[in-house]
Amino acid sequence: MRKDRIAIAIDGPAASGKSSTAKAIAKELGFLHVDSGSLYRAATAARMRSLAKDRRWTEATVLDAARHVSLRPAETGFAALIGGQDADDEIRSPEVTQNVSQVAKMPALREWVNSQVRQVAREHDVVVDGRDIGTVVFPDAALKIFLVAEPGQRARRRLLERLGREPSENEVAEETGRIVNRDEMDADQSVMAPGAVVIDTTHLTQADQVSRIVEMVRALRR
Questions:
Q1: Would you tell me how many other CB atoms lie within 10 Å of the CB of residue 183?
Q2: Residue 131: band (very low, low, confident or very high) from pLDDT cuts 50, 70, 90
Q3: Cα gap 114→7, rounded to integer Å
Q4: How many CB atoms lie under 10 A from the CB of residue 64?
Q5: How far is the C-alpha of 190 from the C-alpha of 114, rounded, in Å?
Q6: pLDDT 10s digits, 5-39
Q7: What CATH homologous superfamily does 36-123 map to?
Q8: CA-closest candidate to residue 66, choices 31, 109, 25
């Protein structure tokens, strides 16, 4: 990464608000947002398209599918494409969510994703969220943030986004169980980087999160 470029690394468990917060920070600062999780999801979705021919989930089969995944510059960041086509709804589907953890554990896939993200950061100031961002992808990031929140709150926020309405108590309870299971599966990829600033968002609005982090970034430039 060029010395005059800035990378802000945002890590945290699933549904902790990493992507939405990172996107808002990038917009506020005039940086570009890179969602590394979208690359894992796109590789997973691409692999699922070809399961009828070969049902093995191996590094080789997923890497072969990942050849069809690319990043397209957007207004404030990058969109993950499959076969050159937008696939955002597909990569956010429950089926992809159920399978993406096993893909993210594959060392070759993690290195593939990391290389894509580092390439973007060589040419742009970026806010990057996802897995291993502050520990592996950008260990020398100008600022490292680790977002946390109580599982129940994370479940409620995810359902609000997905359903567009206030979820019921039963829906929150079911989603909380899924998030706790996901935390267990993702434990190796949700490690806090040395020197990271921990922000508990359980009782914070997104605007509060964003303003706090933006102020930290601006302080780096003073």
A1: 16
A2: confident
A3: 13
A4: 15
A5: 15
A6: 899 999 999 888 898 999 999 999 999 999 888 99
A7: P-loop containing nucleotide triphosphate hydrolases (3.40.50.300)
A8: 109
